[in-house]
Amino acid sequence: MSLSAVGIVLIQTRDADPVRASVLAGLAVIAVASSWALIQVDYMLRYAHLFFSHPSGGIDFHQNEDPSYVDFAYFSVGLGMTYQVADTDVGSRAIRRIVIGQTMLAYLFGAVILATVINLVAGLG
């Protein structure tokens, strides 16, 4: 949704005055950043739900205490930025499926943003 909004903003900024174009560009950046953050929060909640469902576990955070939302946010944001599991071990097939879905979505999201930026920069010249 946010990427389609960015596309609409890009079309509207072509004929807009510089102030309006700057405001629209700022709104587009906020929309994309908010969408990315919302995706990470959604996956964080999915991982926490699966971890604490029966049977519990599936992610080894290498700590003695039970994980908190910060641990699941660390896991989710790490996947969203690097497309890989960093220093945790995934031991559940259900969680692995979600990890694959999140990393594919994150890669697609990043690729579309990169393509949009390249298109925007190429259109400036």
From TrEMBL:
Superkingdom, natural source: Bacteria
Keywords: Membrane, Transmembrane, Transmembrane helix
Residue ranges of the TM segments: 26-45, 105-124
InterPro entries the record matches: DUF1345
Protein name in UniProt: DUF1345 domain-containing protein
Species per Swiss-Prot/TrEMBL record: Microbacterium aurum
Lineage: Bacteria, Bacillati, Actinomycetota, Actinomycetes, Micrococcales
